[in-house]
Amino acid sequence: MFRKFILLFVAAIAINACSSSEEMSPIITDSFDRSALLENIADNIMIPAYEDFSVEMSALKSQGEVFTTTPNQMNLEALRVSWFAAYKSWQYIEMFDIGKAEDLQFKFYMNIYPVTVSDIEGNIASESYDLNSVNNQDAQGFPALDYLLYGLADTDAAILDKYVTAENKESYKNYIGAVLEQMNTLTTTVVSDFKAQRNSFVISIENTATSNINKLINDYIYYYEKGLRANKFGIPSGVFSDTPLPEKVEGRYNSTVSKELALTAVMAVQNLFEGKHYKASTTGVSLKSYLIKLDRTDIATSTTSQFNIATAQIETLADSFATQIDTDNIAMTKAYDELQIAVRLLKLDMLQAFNISVDYQDADGD
């Protein structure tokens, strides 16, 4: 009798252990190769985009050094061109908030807009600042360079005076150098870390809140909903406020690039959904092919179609979103509405098909 009791007790423990293990790592019931999905994203989208951005960032830093050494009209224009090239490249990687990018709050140091001008000018005046401080996240990155290259004055001649004849010209030049050094250092760290962690990244496919596949998909949707739809369109057009806020557009001081940056961002999001290799026509295993494998071609085709519809609406807007908001904000909010339709497809329909839970809370609803 005692021996039978022991056997029953051990069996109960074993059953409970199996049950607990399954609760911690839910079994994936579909046969889709999730590792192949992560391999395509890592090898053909993320790493090439990271490497391209790293090259653009290095070029931007070098051009900044040329300008601060010899601040003239030619070098100012060259620095502006390099800034925009790197800013467009950034649109392909901002969605990847994983690994060191998440740990270091990469996106917050690179692209919080609008900048707080008083913080930038205060840092320059004091010549004492810590760009690693979260309090300075809104005083650096691409938006800070936007202000320093376009927003210091109304004319190029007056802007150049800040770097050539002003009493504190060295402080302005030093600040450009510090911002570029910070951006380049963060980029090097993030890119190097992801490449080093690539092998462990592609095998983390469990259906858990901490697996790489679940985090990547959630981060992707979060970026689309908040970083793209809300920040680039909803907030400036006044969707979340009583009045439009054109001063909150991306690329505010340049004033002509917000549309191109937004179109690049939408393209990057659509390319990842469809598994399209970075700056190539080849496609691989993707979120779209995952849906098709699950017999949810309806979601797959509707999402692609909606990205195309949103892109077409954005194409109708002015190059300057601030100008668009001031002259015809209805067209701007229409673009927001088209982007919003895809939020529901990604966040509700796709995640339900994948049996993945949303890991962030809404600020404005679906």
From TrEMBL:
Record's keyword terms, sorted: Lipoprotein, Signal
Tell me which Pfam families the record gives: Peptidase_M75
Q: Where in the cell is it found?
A: Cell envelope
Give me the segments passing through the membrane. none
Organism's domain of life? Bacteria
Database matches in CDD domains: Imelysin-like_IPPA
InterPro entries according to UniProt: Imelysin-like (IPR018976), Imelysin-like_IPPA (IPR034984), Imelysin_sf (IPR038352)
Q: What positions does the domain Imelysin-like occupy?
A: 47-329
Q: Which residues form the signal peptide?
A: 1-19
Q: What is this protein called?
A: Putative lipoprotein
Naturally occurring in which organism (per UniProt):
Polaribacter irgensii 23-P
